Amino acid sequence: MIKLNRRLALSALLAACVGGSTTALADMKALEEAARKEGQVTWYVASIDARNAEAAGRAFTAKYGPKVNVVRAPSQVMFQRLTQDLSQNARNADVFSSVDVGNFVTLKEQGALMAYKPENATRLLPAFQGLDKDGMFHSTVASVIIIAYNKEKMKADEAPQNWTNLLDAKWIGKIALGHPAFSGFAGNWAAQMNKLYGKSFLQRLEKQKPQVGRSLFDAVNLVSSGERLVTAAPIAPILENADKGKPLAVVYPTDGSILVATPSAVLKNAPHPNGAKLFMEFLLGPEFGGILVKARYEAMRADVKPLPGAKSVTEIKTVRPTIEETTKGIPQVAESWRDVFGQ
């Protein structure tokens, strides 16, 4: 009797698992059909460049059918446009993607986001899951901030190996940085340096006489040209430029690369809600993941591998800013930066 009961229980469990899988597959097929009937999706995107955004749109259309209208602008410009749409009850955007997680916190508080938990969200690597506990927005693009150096000007063992090495006297006048008040990546980096090492880190860094531009991408160009030798920058533009023959190399700091995950969300008033949900599945799926790694962003799924020259986040030590550290810490460190650097 005990053996029979166990068999019955096992059979019931297997039936539940198979039934659950069948239901999920059926739901996806229904979603695909409903999205095809809607015919299009409008994507407000700031988290990747226009070239890769258009490539993603074409890949989605090739797989599912609906056309993707890509509207690309910097994060704050895109957010202002979306805010204006919402204030006028204009149903233009279906999906919104931005570098600034604070945009999503605001939209969530305003009730402007749809609570949708994509199936593919569970297939992300653990480091990228659970960005919002309520499932209103999800990590769809990520990059790590690392140390980059000009490999024509120094050997690998001469480069800084951790963040505090940047404070060594040998780097006076040789560092390029972005300004945390203008660059989201620079803001995340400075906020984490302030958290890990206190304001004294910024004070000592100022004595290194770094060249500070608005963007970390400006810093990358300065190091590439040899005007400066080292920088803290997102890895994507470093490796993309290295692929093109620029003399750039990377160091994953022993005290942790700064992992910055940027979100996407479905708008509550999306004019094409089924297409929007399907597009969110796509942004979390392997096809979009492949586009990202070719552009040297992070591999966010186990079935998408990074290209040579990059490491998976599972292989390195990372520091992941919390939402509060991003929304509150960056404005605070920007003020501290102005106090210390006078700019």
Question: Secondary structure elements and their pairing?
Answer:
Blueprint: H1 2-38, E1 40-45, H2 50-64, E2 67-72, H3 75-87, E3 95-97, H4 101-109, E4 138-150, E5 175-178, H5 184-197, H6 199-206, E6 211-213, H7 216-225, E7 230-234, H8 235-243, E8 248-251, E9 257-266, H9 273-283, H10 286-294, E10 318-319, H11 323-341
Parallel strand pairs: 1-2, 1-3, 5-6, 5-7, 9-10
Antiparallel strand pairs: 3-9, 4-7, 4-8, 4-9
Kindly describe this structure:
- Strands 1, 2, 3, 4, 5, 6, 7, 8, 9 and 10 form a ten-stranded mixed beta sheet that branches.
- This protein is an alpha/beta fold and 343 residues long.
- The longest helix has 37 residues, at 2-38.
- It is built from eleven helices and ten strands.
- The protein is globular.
Given the structure, what is the number of helices?
11
Please tell me what the overall shape is. globular
- Helix content range: 40-55%
Note the gap between the termini.
79 Å
Determine the CATH topology of the largest domain.
D-Maltodextrin-Binding Protein, domain 2
**Could you name the ranges where pLDDT drops below 50 across 5 or more consecutive residues?**
1-25
**Count of DSSP E strands?**
10
Alpha-beta classification: alpha/beta
Proportion in β-strands: 15-25%
Number of domains: 2
Classified by CATH, the class of the largest domain is Alpha Beta
User: What would you say the CATH architecture of the largest domain is?
Assistant: 3-Layer(aba) Sandwich
